[in-house]
Amino acid sequence: MADKIVVADKIVKEFKPNLFMGEAIRIIDGVSFELDREESLAIIGPNGSGKTTLLKILATIYLPDSGTALIDGYDIIKDTEEVRNRISLVSPALDFQKKLTLKETLKFFADIQDSKIDQAFDFLQYMGLMPMLDLRLETFSEGQKAMTRLAIGLMKKPEILLLDEVFATLDFRRREHLIKYLEDYVKGITLIIVDHHSEVVDRLCTKMLLMKRGGSTLKIGSVGEIFERSPYKYDVIAVPKKYMSEEISEGFGYPYMRLGGRVRFFVKNKEEADDLIERMFEWDKFVSFEVSGVSMDDIYWLSMLESAEEERFKKFCTQCGAFIPRDLNFCLQCGYFLD
Amino acid sequence: MGYFKTLNACTWRYLKIDWRYKFSIVTDAIWTMVTVVAFGTLGYAAGQGNENFVKYQGTNAFIWILVTGIFYWTFFSRPFEESVLAVPEEAARGTLGFLVTNQVSPATMLTGRMVSSVFKFTIIAAAVVYPVMYVLDLRIPPEYLLEIFLILFISMFFMLALVFIVSALTLIVKKIGVIINIFLHSSRILSGFYFPLSNGKESEFGPVAMWIENYLPIARGLVMIRDIVIPEDKGGGISHTAVWEGLEWMLIGTVIALVFAFIFIAKITDLSRKWGTLEFY
Ligand SMILES: Nc1ncnc2c1ncn2[C@@H]1O[C@H](COP(=O)(O)OP(=O)(O)OP(=O)(O)O)[C@@H](O)[C@H]1O
Ligand SMILES: [Mg+2]
């Protein structure tokens, strides 16, 4: 048993849009990370940043152009058989023969994976899918198909479970339900997920890998670390009596973002929050305020904003030189407020 | 063994699917019937006043040639197409990527597709083509049943080798429709479906034609089937010993083709993992 369960080392992947001519486009640009046993990783980034491609490389569907990864000590390029025995990729790209029933479908995938279909029953029971066993897949909703994919992935009892946006088509209740299941389930295994829901990342993952367009790493670290690194710890949500112009919002001297009719200010500490609220009171045009700690949600949101930003909108912090997303008027690195 | 378990799973899956698309079984049967009529009338027209047109004698000789050709190819034409088309279909469905991450070669899936498809067309051949043969005095003598079965069985694996090769190409080139037909028609011509190769014996291509007839499994197979079903007094007839010798050559050719095709598809699968064409459309 290797020390680290996953060691990805400078993975690079390029694709040519046309095999026989034209330039290759770099999709993954030297991504490295390590995971200990029972750690789990969230891969986050904007559309097209190469998250799915990275999962497919780890799952040995694609070969990297350079770099490699070790899964439980086995090389994804050379020891494919050992790697394949240990991983299970749940991909939204997996579609089904719609004339087959759920049971027949599970049976087929069980045989392919050399597992047994009753190993999926537990999960199906939990998600309430058991009564559907004899129904054909053509009658399934997207969410139910997503669950079927997951059932297939879990059936294999992998050591590493790779989940690509499995929560995307689930309603709120199902999502909660599934998170709970995985919270228990992942205790014994390693989870690598791509997901756009912050609560999923927050509850299931200990580490985050933020990718930006072009497939390079923006940030990597434990969820706590990335949380810590954010200079803004509190936010104040203010509901103005009527529309509050940009000028007035800026007048308060704190970074903010607009949320429909409300304005949300970010502050570094309690003192700043008090100061802000005091000045709002004086101004007397607010219905209410609400102070709270910045949540995982915000960190996630701010990070997404940061990694999604396109080249042409780039601006930089005059204090520390870091890149600042277009929608923000403060620096995510040092907290400096641009005015 | 793992291989047979997955092969079995793939075959059953396709059998079930085919069974549930009953309408397409009907259209396949009708299509076969139309082919029989088309080639039957052609054979009839060509045979009039042209009794020594081919190796066999009588006004029916050319019909016999064509109808036995259809009988033989009913087992492999559509199954060949269906199997090759299974690759882009399953790739788009993500099954191919899934198989690869589970250490199952696309070749296994293709074998399952081919076997189940040939099964379906065995029923169509028996129900649609054989009655026509029967009416035309073309009969399978019971003592040759095993040999006929083996000829068809080995031919299926030869066609499977072709399926591997063309399917491997579909992993790289996506628009494959015409390529399928090029391969299919070339192999039908080479098998002597439209015109027996031995008819060209005297021409300058004679040696090549005879070599193909002896060593290309589908050519030898078809010649033997014709000799078995066409009446002896009209130039048909073949001894059991001759059939068994033919089967040996068919087996050798098929094994060589399969080994080559298997290596080819394995190599191309690896390349498509590198190029990213394995799942991407
Ligand atoms: N096999 C392939 N061949 C060519 N280009 C590809 C291939 N796979 C992915 N790409 C391209 O690589 C880029 C990254 O794709 P990928 O699916 O990895 O992004 P992603 O981060 O998962 O995006 P999303 O959030 O939309 O799922 C896209 O521009 C895509 O078109
Ligand atoms: Mg994706």
Brief digest:
Chain A is an alpha/beta fold and 339 residues long.
Strand and helix map with partners:
The complex is a heterodimer of chains A (339) and B (281).
Chain A: E1 4-15, E2 25-36, E3 40-44, H1 51-58, E4 66-71, E5 74-75, H2 80-86, E6 87-90, H3 102-113, H4 118-126, H5 142-155, E7 160-164, H6 172-185, E8 190-194, H7 198-204, E9 207-212, E10 216-222, H8 223-229, E11 234-240, H9 246-251, E12 256-259, E13 262-267, H10 270-283, E14 286-293, H11 296-308, E15 315-316, E16 323-324
Parallel strand pairs in A: 3-8, 3-9, 6-7, 7-8
Antiparallel strand pairs in A: 1-2, 1-4, 4-5, 9-10, 11-13, 11-14, 12-13, 15-16
Helix pairs in contact in A: 3-5, 4-5
Chain B: H1 2-20, H2 22-47, H3 61-74, H4 77-92, H5 95-101, H6 106-135, H7 145-170, H8 177-190, H9 206-215, H10 217-229, H11 240-275
Helix pairs in contact in B: 1-6, 2-3, 2-6, 3-6, 3-10, 4-6, 4-7, 4-8, 6-7, 7-10, 7-11, 9-10, 10-11
Bound molecules: adenosine-5'-triphosphate (ATP) and magnesium ion.
Describe the structure.
The complex is a heterodimer of chains A (339) and B (281). With 339 residues, chain A is an alpha/beta fold. Chain A is 33% helix and 27% strand. In chain A, helix 3 packs parallel to helix 5 and helix 4 crosses helix 5. Chain A is globular. Chain A starts with a strand and ends in a 15-residue tail after the last strand. Chain B is globular, with a radius of gyration of 20 Å. Chain B is 75% helix and 0% strand. Chain B has helices at 2-20, 22-47, 61-74, 77-92, 95-101, 106-135, 145-170, 177-190, 206-215, 217-229, 240-275. The chains are: A alpha/beta (339), B mainly alpha (281). Chains A and B meet through helix 2, strand 6 and helix 3 of A and helix 1, helix 5 and helix 11 of B. The complex binds adenosine-5'-triphosphate and magnesium ion. The site of adenosine-5'-triphosphate (ATP) has 10 residues of chain A, from helix 1. The site of magnesium ion has 3 residues of chain A, from helix 1.
